[in-house]
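retry 2 of 3: previous attempt timed out while embedding 0RA. Reduced batch size to 1 and resubmitted. Inputs unchanged:
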Amino acid sequence: MSEAEKRDNYSADNIQVLEGLEAVRKRPAMYIGDVGLKGLHHLVYEVVDNSIDEALAGYCNKIDVYINENNSITVIDNGRGIPTAMHTKEKKSALEVVMTVLHAGGKFDKDTYKVSGGLHGVGVSCVNALSTQLIATVRREGKIFRQEYNIGKPLYDVQIIGESTETGTEVTFQPDASIFDYTEYNYDTLAARMRELAFLNKGITISLTDKRNLDENGKAFSVSFHSEGGLKEFAQYLDRNREALINDVIYFEGEREGIPVEVSLTYNTSYTENIQAYVNNINTHEGGTHLSGFRRGLTNTLKKYATDSGMLAKEKIEIDGDDFREGLTAVVSVKVAEPQFEGQTKTKLGNREVTAPVSQAVSEMLSAYLEEHPSEARLIVEKVILAARARHAARKAREMVQRKNVLAGSGLPGKLADCSEKDPAMCEIYFVEGDSAGGTAKQGRDRHFQAILPLRGKILNVEKAMQYKIFENEEIKNLYTALGVRIGTEDDSKALNLEKLRYHKIIIMCDADVDGSHIETLILTFFFRYMKELIEHGYIYIATPPLYQVKKGNKSEYAWNDDMRDRLIMELKGGGSESSVNVQRYKGLGEMNAEQLWETTMNPESRTLRQVTIENAAECDQIFSMLMGDDVPPRREFIERNAKYAKIDA
Ligand code: 0RA
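retry 2 succeeded.
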């Protein structure tokens, strides 16, 4: 190749690279899911995943993550360091290739067994494309190498900036504020993911330091996650707010049919089933073949044990799969070389070959445990029998709900003020705290597309109640009938059937005070445990009524927080000297008249709705069990701390 040809080739390659990164900037959501809070945090996961891969390859055991003062992120690992030598095909440093070529990840190194790579597996070059600045520093071969980029473009060739006896990779990036709706990182969100990664990849130490948050000694807030027990400790962590039924966690780690499988399970005295399933460190909350394998292994093994033990002999009722999972907490983690993700949120594993290995692993570990622990085995079987009896009672109650549903139209709850529009995509329903606010909302709404269902103060805490109690509850029956949903689909008898769902915006409207937050949480708990599909489809929203009205003369404005209130007071005062500005604090929805409620909270033109999403399924489970516990202060603190992070739908 002549020099000229080489040059042409080089620039052609470069153009391709820039086109690739340009595509990421044009359609960021296609690469990282969205440009909201989720996408912003996804950037961190993408970078950390590369370090996790290095750890899984056996060369790294420490990953440090920093949230810097300016909301940039630094990730440092002690791996081999990304190679910096010339990449023969791309004719530039391997480091530059990894940082600027889409999907280049670890591909230049065929021996790297790459199973991780994040939900979208897009690689660190996407993070680079979406950052105003990224600095990559590599320590290897006794030297320190560095390259900097601006929206993905290198500012200079890889430089040697010093010497070091250490090895590792350090990446600092500043997310581009012109791409993302938000640029402020949520510490708790990152901490939850780092904790989860530490459980899923035992032996690695992952620290998270928040440099925005200094204590009185000027020291940044920091936590470190490390698990020697892996999923065994993960199950204990998930159940730490629940009462144990057996004191052990049953655990398996190994490879079956070439697929690495790690499983843990235990039982608590609650009535909820909590199985967290992972593929390549990704929470597959829609389940899939590995979850089917888990269920099959569990059901077959327990059924056989229970039958052989003779404990079922006097039972007249049939035991089914669900009964074995009441009070069960389990974590399943598999590594799959070419995962097929399906489902609404691409979090359902489709690979058929994964079912048998997981089922085998569960059968092996569980039958061994049951044989060796007869008294614990007895406790589990007794619980299963109780669950079966309760299920029969629950089914009767559920059938009542379903029967009422068949009459939909004439059978709608009496308290529901329905809308006239029939197309669910256009329709909204407000669940309103209390009859009085419900009345105001009925007057204030646009009856064409907005329906109102007033709810009696505190609805049932479903976290603590047995299933049949839940389906006997009048308010909850009303929720089902008003929404038009049923239980059971063609391929899953427990799944929510959304075919007849009557509204695509389901809006929880509570007072802006602690009681309101409590009620909001009770309703969300119900949705999370019994109608999770509605959250996954993005149908659930929270209304945000204002906290203040600031008035002067015939001018009036609303404020949603104290800063806004103070700014409005200043504005309305203007140059004027007199404090004739009137501030009204709204304690409840009922203090607004119908017109005010419409204007501030219900009018799609001017309201703010917060959409409810699931960031981290394992953490969600844990948080709901914490929120519904008996301790009020942590709940209040949690809600107040996190409310502002909810996604805004303008
Ligand atoms: C492929 C080969 C080698 C290192 C890595 C990938 C690597 C990538 C990342 C990304 C973040 N941290 C990382 N650490 C290592 C090295 C191959 C060798 O040295 O022989």
